Amino acid sequence: MAETSIRPEEAAHFGAMAADWWDPRGSSAMLHRLNPVRLGFIRAEIDRHFGSDARTLRPLEGRSALDVGCGAGLLAEPLARMGAFVTGVDAAPELIEAARTHAGQSGLAIRYVAGEVAALDGCFDLVTALEVVEHVADPATFVADLSARLAPGGLLVMSTPNRTPLARLLTITLAEGTGQIPRGTHDYEQFIPPEGLAGLLGAAGLEVRATRGIAFSATRGLHLSDDLRLNYLVAAARAA
């Protein structure tokens, strides 16, 4: 078992991207394109799980949320606007500093912590870890740490690339090869298929409640799909 989920080389890689994290044409451009798609899934699962009104702008009013691997806040800020008391944690101190600065400029009170999820106290109604599990030292330990931070009746949402030839082609060969994603961002051997992630969640006492793919087409761009080959999201909760 690894003592820490953090891989120092990964923290350094993403920390170097902090300066232009919020630039939709910068090194995190792909995350900016992914974010609306991921938010659509998250919002639907929030409404389904907590029974919130799909018409309200603040479905997380009075609830707590933890965004693990928060980067400079691309997801944490929308969660705060949904009414949540948000904590963001990331292994790269440079990203946490950028996140604090941007949240202050946006008038959002978000608690940001440099470190790892295992070091946090307390539990949260919503825990998110998007495009993170493929970068950690020990995925099983990491998923168990996420589960430990989930409050009774809480919801966990994760996303990650699938371990398929298509994901390798589009994510590494093309996206990294053409500079859409910084080179060295992904290691195909760390990609986890849906059944593998479901197994990790089950071992941590959680069960998958919903799975959707993120697909790409020339006409629709990135969009939610039943096609899981490229990238996928899962919503999970405590097993009954």
UniProtKB/TrEMBL annotation:
Binding annotation for S-adenosyl-L-methionine: 38, 69, 90, 130
Domain of life from the UniProt record: Bacteria
Listed pathway(s): Cofactor biosynthesis; ubiquinone biosynthesis
Gene3D superfamilies, sorted: Vaccinia Virus protein VP39 (3.40.50.150)
EC number: 2.1.1.222, 2.1.1.64
Keywords for this protein: Methyltransferase, S-adenosyl-L-methionine, Transferase, Ubiquinone, Ubiquinone biosynthesis
InterPro entries on file: SAM-dependent_MTases_sf, UbiG_MeTrfase
Keyword NAD: no
Enzyme class name: transferase
Catalytic activity: a 3-demethylubiquinol + S-adenosyl-L-methionine = a ubiquinol + S-adenosyl-L-homocysteine + H(+); a 3-(all-trans-polyprenyl)benzene-1,2-diol + S-adenosyl-L-methionine = a 2-methoxy-6-(all-trans-polyprenyl)phenol + S-adenosyl-L-homocysteine + H(+)
One Pfam family cited in the UniProt record for this chain: Methyltransf_23
Family in the record: Belongs to the methyltransferase superfamily. UbiG/COQ3 family.
Function: O-methyltransferase that catalyzes the 2 O-methylation steps in the ubiquinone biosynthetic pathway.
Family annotation (HAMAP family): UbiG (MF_00472)
Protein name per its UniProtKB record: Ubiquinone biosynthesis O-methyltransferase
